[in-house]
From TrEMBL:
It comes from Sphingobium cloacae. It comes from the Bacteria. Residues 167-299 form the BioF2-like acetyltransferase domain. InterPro entries: Acyl_CoA_acyltransferase (IPR016181), BioF2-like_GNAT_dom (IPR038740). This is CelD-like protein.
Length: 335
């Protein structure tokens, strides 16, 4: 029989996990305890986490959630999250995964009126079915995409030859005379972070609320040797920057920024050219992931788009959910 337990702080979660979602045991960055703990601490510190653990025999399911109010939960994720998914430990077979998810959904049904999960990819159908079996009214909606490049053994020259002509022409024209010096660092220093903030401040109209989260991410990945922080500079001054991580054959593109005063020179595009070349020919990655968002420029660099889904679950025992549930269902039908 499945047993559920809730945790309301990461101080409780860490001993219960006993290292099983640490870097050494967890290949995917977005499944790690460090990721969730840092995301919560830097972006959601005003709300306690709501972490659910369900066990049956030696198998476990972990759901990292966040309260929106007293009756509503959301996935512990935001715009930095490439994906969110249920995390299974001890590699349970699919039928046991389904049973664990259904047990989690039944447990949550007792105290919550609404739950939303985003961004969900491959696990969407499994989650939808489990929550429906447990008695939730659950709706799945496509909501954006995730752009990914399967390198397929190509070197950078072969990859670049297959990019759209307009992109290759832009890099050739803007790169004449090497107008920008490019450097890619694996170790974070205070000086590099100052340069990063200098570019970032000139890239957006409003300050980014999660800049401290990015700093913490860069620090952790620097220590692990997985950080790739690129800069394009003009006369020593940083004018474009990119924050990537490279691990287990996968390059993740976390953040791009450029000084808008240099738009005419396309320093961000030239820096991307160098970053892709380094990831493919120096790091020998198998996959490059541009993360969430359907920005048009991503299609020029990537070959595939995976659909991301949002799953909204409504507890029919709460009359307050009936109208939102109906509206969500209509929204899913009309696309």
């Amino acid at each position: 029989m499945a047993v559920a337990r809730e945790y309301r702080s990461f101080a409780e979660v860490r001993p219960a996990l006993a290292g099983r979602l640490d870097r050494a045991a967890t290949p995917c960055l977005f499944d790690r305890i460090d990721w969730f703990e840092s995301l919560h601490g830097h972006c959601f510190a005003d709300r306690p986490p709501h972490v659910l653990r369900v066990t049956e025999e030696d198998a476990e399911l972990w759901l990292f959630l966040l309260p929106s109010d007293t009756r509503r939960l959301s996935a512990l994720a935001n715009w930095y999250s490439f994906l969110w998914r249920p995390i299974f430990l001890s590699a349970p077979a699919l039928p046991l995964q389904a049973a664990l998810l259904e047990a989690a959904a039944l447990h949550l049904l007792a105290d919550h009126a609404q739950i939303d999960f985003y961004p969900v990819q491959g696990e969407a159908e499994q989650m939808l079915a489990a929550f429906r079996r447990a008695g939730w009214f659950a709706v799945r909606r496509p909501m954006g995409g995730r752009h990914v490049l399967d390198v397929k053994g190509r070197d950078f020259a072969a990859y670049w030859a297959q990019r759209p002509g307009r992109l290759r022409n832009q890099v050739r024209r803007k790169g004449r005379g090497a107008p920008f010096a490019i450097d890619i660092s694996k170790r974070l220093t205070d000086a590099l972070w100052d340069d990063y903030q200098h570019v970032h401040a000139r890239s957006w109209k409003d300050a980014e609320p999660g800049l401290s989260f990015l700093r913490a991410l860069a620090e952790r990945e620097s220590v692990a040797g997985t950080l790739r922080m690129g800069f394009a500079r003009r006369d020593g001054m940083p004018v474009a920057t990119q924050l990537w991580t490279v691990e287990n054959g996968v390059a993740l593109i976390h953040k791009l920024s450029h000084d808008r005063a240099f738009d005419h020179g396309s320093p961000g595009t030239l820096l991307s050219h160098a970053m892709f070349a380094h990831a493919i020919d120096a790091d020998h990655v198998a996959t490059i992931d541009y993360g969430t968002g359907d920005n048009a420029y991503k299609r020029d660099w990537m070959d595939e788009r995976a659909t991301l889904h949002r799953i909204d679950c409504f507890n029919p025992r709460h009359a307050s959910t009936w109208i939102p549930a109906a509206r969500t269902a209509i929204s899913a039908l009309v696309g």
